[in-house]
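Take a record:
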Amino acid sequence: MVRNGLNDAVVLHQDTFAADYQTDEFALLGQAIKYAGLFGREVRVIGKNRETLA
């Protein structure tokens, strides 16, 4: 998805990485953003706080 160059952007839902606001989740989110940036991809984070946890 990121490497093949077919997409200009990567869309992530915020609850995927920071649902509980733990340090490890934020580190993983940062790594995903950095990885996408290495391949020149735009990163979009969508969703509202705890939207999918209800």
Observations:
- Residues 23-38 form the longest helix (16 residues).
- The chain is about 40% helix and 20% strand.
- The chain has a mean pLDDT of 77.
